[in-house]
Write a structure and sequence with these properties.
By secondary structure, the protein is of the alpha/beta class. The chain is about 40% helix and about 20% strand. The protein has nine helices and ten strands. It has helices spanning about 5-30, 40-55, 60-65, 85-105, 120-125, 140-150, 195-200, 220-235, 240-250; strands spanning about 1-5, 75, 80-85, 110, 130-135, 155-160, 180-185, 205-210, 255-265, 270-275. It has a ten-stranded mixed sheet, sandwiched between helices. It is globular. The termini are far apart.
Length: about 280
């Protein structure tokens, strides 16, 4: 892995986002339609990716399916710009989730927005004694996940096609011994994520881990964080989640926030928010 001094790359990323912001302002002034991220856009985007991955499924090993073989690029690792560490970033995130599962002493794990299933596969391999369920609204993603599950013989994982926004049914899958997590999923719902949090608040969940790009400014990465704020405006991304979690869940949950300084996209890093229901009894 190669560690960058950061200044040149940070300035480059900031310049790109400033250019896109200027372009968006011009589009607004001219009265043209401005891009808005909606469920249809997200579904179609991921459906295309899943179809491509499904065509190549037979070529994947267990490790390459989970961690991929993307071209090397710069990522954020411990608040440093590091080249070629995408796998290490993902491994760190899986390790964080795995430790939280162990600490919760839960027997079941539910992922919100399981995508192609790779997170659950990595976790089920680490916790073969637990049951894993992925909820996903893309039928192509569900199909790919089930094919991969069969390929890798992961009998403790299952998937259900459910829209987290429109469906009122999915909280019924959460029992008191179910650990719930999301990994870079609610960011795809910049105006709709509050609905998911509200449903979780009144579910049976005792342990919820959000690993999402909640905005947090740090002088350690001042140029990157300015670029990140502009990116949220440019690309219709997540904003305000940290304050909404405090407002909505703090009555029923103790919430721990950590700025991880970690992300495969340097200007879209992952933030840690662990919610443990107050007065929960961990003894089984």
């Amino acid at each position: 892995m190669k560690i960058s001094s950061g200044n040149y790359l940070s300035i480059k990323l900031l310049s790109i986002e400033l250019f896109l912001a200027f372009k968006k302002i011009i589009i607004q002034i001219t009265g043209k339609n401005v891009f808005k991220r909606d469920p249809q856009f997200v579904r179609s985007s991921y459906d295309r990716q899943r179809k491509t991955k499904k065509e190549l499924l037979n070529t994947f090993s267990f490790e390459s399916y989970i961690y991929g073989a993307e071209p090397f690029k710069y990522s954020l690792f411990d608040n440093k710009l590091v080249f070629g560490c995408q796998k290490e970033v993902h491994e760190r995130l899986i390790w964080i989730i795995s430790n939280a599962i162990t600490s919760s002493n839960c027997n079941k794990v539910l992922e919100l927005g399981s995508g192609d299933g790779k997170n659950l596969f990595a976790l089920s391999n680490l916790h073969p004694d637990k049951k894993f369920l992925g909820l996903e609204f893309s039928s192509e993603s569900i199909n790919l996940s089930e094919l991969a599950r069969n390929k890798f013989s992961l009998t403790n994982t299952s998937f259900k096609e459910i829209d987290l926004i429109s469906s009122e049914k999915w909280p019924s899958y959460i029992e008191e011994d179910t650990f719930v997590f999301s990994l870079m999923v609610l960011e795809e719902m910049p105006r709709l994520y509050k609905s998911v949090i509200n449903k979780l608040n009144f579910s049976n969940a005792n342990y919820i881990l959000f690993l999402e790009p909640m905005y947090s400014f740090s002088f350690k990465r001042i140029l990157l964080d300015i670029a990140r704020l502009i990116r949220i405006f440019n690309r219709d991304r997540l904003f305000g989640m940290k304050s909404y979690l405090k407002k909505t869940l703090s009555k029923n949950f103790n919430i721990k926030f950590i700025d991880l300084g970690l992300g495969n996209n340097p200007i879209n890093p992952t933030y840690f928010a662990y919610c443990e229901r107050k007065y929960v009894n961990k003894q089984k």
